[in-house]
């Protein structure tokens, strides 16, 4: 009898605190999650809908997904995309695979230390203007409140049930934390399947370690999340100095993750590198042509087809049972 009660109590706990299960087979630890934005299925589902919703931009033309497309590893295929109203873009959109693990986001903003903070930049930012919602937070809430499904979704996701900017960015962050790439050929290789990479890719993997690439493109997410100057003497984009005001930071950019890098081109902070070979040659290293070819082959081994086609990350077809 006592055991029955214990089982019933357990079931009850499971029903009221659905918790969150991270995938178990990734080969890396679960990501850090801010204490005030616990993961939940309801929050992730809401964040996914918001990520694909162009109502988050002032003129209804741009969603997060306009510049972060799943088939491109959540980057896009243009050098720098304009924001609303044809405001010129400034930088190339990076892919979002495993952003949950990155302690510093974007190319050159040391203040962007969480996905919650970062999401305010595309929504409200003015340099450059992306989604153009600065000063229009009330309008944003009004639009979402007009939709009964959003009202229900916010109520399920947040104790205060409110449709506010902090809740919007919290849901977006929770969804982005589920953008987990752990099934590239390189991941299977890391987990012990030597045949997951081709011969040239294995040679590239070796060079990646022995030529110093992995000192900056470090760890399972292939970035040290630190800022480096790779030698452009007169960069048109001043990089980190814009935020810190320190002259030594001129031309410094955060090491991008190389996950899915073969499908996130064009490359470089300004999208001016038109091939992976070009991107590698911009580093101050001298490598023989055949070594560059092997490194490029290795970079192709970082493409995760499962991630790229994962239906849980795709544009939702329905919300609250209705077609979108
Ligand atoms: C107009 C195109 C555009 C839109 C719309 C856009 N982004 Fe981005 N995103 C970018 C660019 C460009 C960068 C790089 C900015 C930089 O480094 O200065 C970026 C960077 C990021 C990063 C940092 C990734 C990393 O590797 O550090 C995240 C996370 C992100 N965006 C999420 C979002 C979310 C969430 C939305 C919607 C609220 C959104 N983006 C809307 C273009 C866009
Ligand atoms: C000193 C640190 C450092 C080392 C060493 C390094 N990188 Fe990078 N890498 C960076 C930084 C920083 C960027 C971004 C530069 C920019 O956009 O201005 C970058 C960009 C790239 C890109 C383009 C990524 C994108 O999304 O645009 C590729 C590809 C790349 N590196 C591959 C390599 C390879 C291969 C090696 C070894 C030969 C290497 N890197 C060594 C720091 C480094």
TrEMBL record:
PTM comment: Binds 2 heme groups per subunit.
Keywords attached to this entry: Heme, Iron, Metal-binding, Oxidoreductase, Periplasm, Peroxidase, Signal
Domain of life per record: Bacteria
Binding-site residues for heme c 2, renumbered to this chain: 213, 216-217
EC number: 1.11.1.5
Xref: PANTHER family: CYTOCHROME C PEROXIDASE (PTHR30600:SF14), CYTOCHROME C PEROXIDASE-RELATED (PTHR30600)
Protein name: Cytochrome-c peroxidase
Species annotation: Sphingopyxis granuli
């Amino acid at each position: 009898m006592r055991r029955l009660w214990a089982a019933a109590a357990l079931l009850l706990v499971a029903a009221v605190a659905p918790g969150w299960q991270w995938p178990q087979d990734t080969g890396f630890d679960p990501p850090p999650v801010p204490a005030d934005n616990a993961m939940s299925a309801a929050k992730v589902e809401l964040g996914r809908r918001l990520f694909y919703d162009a109502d988050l931009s002032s003129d209804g033309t741009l969603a997060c997904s306009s510049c972060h497309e799943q088939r491109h590893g959540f980057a896009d295929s243009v050098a720098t995309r304009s924001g609303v109203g044809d405001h010129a873009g400034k930088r190339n959109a990076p892919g979002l695979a495993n952003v949950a693990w990155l302690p510093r986001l974007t190319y050159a903003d040391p203040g962007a230390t969480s996905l919650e903070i970062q999401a305010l930049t595309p929504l409200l930012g003015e340099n450059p203007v992306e989604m153009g919602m600065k000063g229009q937070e009330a309008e944003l809430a009004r639009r979402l409140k007009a939709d009964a499904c959003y009202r229900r979704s916010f109520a399920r996701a947040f104790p205060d049930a409110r449709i506010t900017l902090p809740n919007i960015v919290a849901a977006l962050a929770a969804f982005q934390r589920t953008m987990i790439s752990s099934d590239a050929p390189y991941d299977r290789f890391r987990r012990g399947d030597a045949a997951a990479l081709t011969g040239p890719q294995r040679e590239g993997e070796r060079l990646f370690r022995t030529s110093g690439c992995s000192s900056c493109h470090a760890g399972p997410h292939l970035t040290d999340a630190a800022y480096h100057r790779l030698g452009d003497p007169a960069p048109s984009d001043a990089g980190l100095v814009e935020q810190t005001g320190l002259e030594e930071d001129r031309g410094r950019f955060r090491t991008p993750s190389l996950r899915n890098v073969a499908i996130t081109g064009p490359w470089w902070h300004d999208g001016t590198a038109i091939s992976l070979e070009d991107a590698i040659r911009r580093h101050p290293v001298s490598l023989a042509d055949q070594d560059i070819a092997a490194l490029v082959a290795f970079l192709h081994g970082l493409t995760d087809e499962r991630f790229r086609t994962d239906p849980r990350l795709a544009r939702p077809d329905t919300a609250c049972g209705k077609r979108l």
